[in-house]
Design a protein that fits this description.
It is a single chain. With 304 residues, the protein is of the alpha+beta class. The chain folds into 2 domains: 197 residues, Endonuclease I-creI, CATH 3.10.28.10; 88 residues, no CATH class. The chain contains 11 helices and 8 strands. A 4-stranded antiparallel sheet has the order 1-2-4-3. The longest helix is centred in the last third of the chain and has 51 residues. The N and C termini lie far apart (70 Å). The model has no long low-confidence stretch (mean pLDDT 85).
């Protein structure tokens, strides 16, 4: 079964309508998080972008076309071990135009983009950038399996940049490390839904909201059932104590009881599973009146 993260990425990769500046910001994030640099001698550097998501690979190819006359190649391979996942590699062979693109998109290793400058001048481009980072290096749990969204980076400097960018976009993100990786993550369900809506994954956000509503209703039902079960157990325990007291008084001679207590005693014996409300209807008195009489009977039995 396809993962929820893949569903979100497929939806985002199909998106259209962003301006040229936003498309460039998204491409910068995709290449920064998912591409490696190759050397080509006099031809200049090249880039190689790798992903397991076909839609993301197509997205990268489409965005690269906006950069002008850049030659690209794509290869598909399948691992022979472990999960045997298919990988898609978009290669940009060494060519003069790549060096310019690396400089303009700030793709040099060990660096991070400069907020408020270049392709991050506008807030819409910041959203596009974090969408690109998610497409390449992000993941989100399936609704109902806990709320967790994360970005993975091998660079602490770049992870810190993503953390600051997320906070600027009003996402309550945190930073931690996992082995040799740095993780920027969000745990709050509301914030994850806001992120999905913000980057353009409205269908995924709706699925998350539906799952949240179902979970809340289920939790509420469970609380009510547990409360009702506890009340029933409490009622059963009280009825057992009352019946024990009645049997003890009966053995000593119930004729000694006042008329109202004797009437209540007989009603409880005839209806051992009835609630106080049911007994109140049978006796034609209030619920508190029944409770008072039964407590009196229990007290008398204890005294005897």
């Amino acid at each position: 079964m396809i993962s929820f993260a893949s569903e979100v990425k497929n939806e985002l990769a199909r998106g259209e309508g962003d301006g040229e500046c936003c498309r460039r910001a998204e491409l910068a994030a995709l290449l920064k998080t998912g591409a490696t640099m190759t050397l080509g001698g006099r031809s200049g550097p090249g880039l190689s972008f790798s992903t397991e998501n076909a839609a993301v690979a197509r997205r990268v190819l489409r965005l690269l076309k906006d950069e002008g006359a850049i030659t690209t190649e794509i290869t598909v391979s399948r691992a022979l071990r472990l999960k045997k996942n298919t990988r898609y590699e978009v290669r940009i062979p060494p060519q003069p135009a790549v060096g310019r693109m690396i400089e303009e998109l700030e793709l040099l290793p060990g660096s991070a983009p400069t907020p408020g400058r270049g392709f991050l001048k506008r807030s819409c481009c910041e959203v596009a950038y974090i969408r690109g980072a998610f497409l390449s290096a992000g993941s989100v749990n399936r609704p109902g399996a806990g709320y967790h969204l994360e970005f993975v980076s091998t660079s602490y400097q770049y992870a810190e940049f993503l953390l600051n960018l997320a906070e600027k976009l009003s996402l309550p993100a945190r930073l931690t490390d996992r082995k040799e990786f740095y993780i920027v993550y969000v745990k709050e369900a509301d914030a994850i839904a806001d992120f999905l809506n913000m980057v353009g994954a409205e269908q995924a956000a709706e699925k998350l909201e539906i799952s949240r509503n179902v979970k809340e209703v289920r939790n509420q039902v469970n609380r009510l059932v547990n409360c009702e079960t506890a009340n029933l157990q409490k009622t059963a325990d009280a009825a057992a104590r009352q019946l024990n007291a009645i049997r003890q008084l009966t053995g000593e001679g119930k004729a000694a009881l006042p008329e109202k207590l004797q009437e209540t005693l007989e009603a409880r014996l005839a209806n051992p599973d009835a609630s106080l409300t049911d007994l109140a209807e049978i006796l034609g008195i209030t619920r508190s009146g029944v409770n008072h009489r039964l407590r009196k009977i229990v007290e008398m039995a204890e005294n005897m």
